Please model this.
Amino acid sequence: MIITVGSAAQAQWASNRPDSHAPYGVMMDHTHELGEFVFSYRYMYMQMNGLRIGTEKATSNEVLNLGYSATPTDMQTQMHMLAAMFAPIENFTLVAMLPFAVKSMDHATRSGPFTTESSGVADLEVAGMWKLEPADDQLVHLDLALSFPNGSTEKTDGTPMGDDVCLPYPVQIGSGTFDLTPGLTCLGQASKFSWGLQGLTTFRLGENDQGYRFGHRYMATTWGAYHTIDWLSGSLRLDWTKKENVEGADSELDPDVVPTADPDLQGFNRWSAGFGINTYIREGSFRGLRINGDFVIPFDQDLNDPQLETDRYLIVGLQYSGQTGWLGG
Ligand SMILES: [Cu+2]
Model:
């Protein structure tokens, strides 16, 4: 790798710092130099407990009294995600991400509780990141991700209505549509401090085989990170996510039975705070290994009528980066 020499007053961007990668909940955060590769594993665990109508907390009885036969009370989502990154040409980094999702939703009815479960390989996402050329101690890149409709939108499970009932929107595994996510990421570094800013929008293209598409999604996040020792950094992050309602409807779902089956009760607007730790092993046989975690707590959420609120989620995992010899990087 050729290291270009900047002006003496301005530090070069350092990619060998724990905080040269964003908090782990941020995807498509960093680019690579020609010939560099990364393999990573992410585990996400999200807890949703209790209901809200708009911004107000609501009990399951209050939701049942709106006329539903069932209401969700609790949901756990787990995601295992494998990702590979590679920079095949100068200023261009490719990423492929494959998640496996496990979802469990508890419900209340007038005659007792029940739980549905669904799991499977979720949508494969392939992204490109183009690095622009700003100042030496800053990086800016354009992001474009394409999500493939390989994840299932036909998950079923046993409910009081039968043994093999079509599950509602939030517990399906894939989107069923090609989804396009353009975005912009800006990163800055000082000697002990770093910061970042990212905006992404997910557009759902067309309609899936069930006759609907998930709502478009808007995400913005900004963070600051600080490191005093060279292998460890801590970060504080602010995250905004807005999701629109489902367009169209799955004809097998009856929106009068349970709110999760209503396409108009899927959108939300959520502000969260993230607390992250990044580590980076700089020497020895594990050189290039990172172990990262990001714990996110929503502090303000406005849900499109009865929905489960998001209480907290955690993203932890490993990244291993290296250099391919054959590209002469
Ligand atoms: Cu990477």
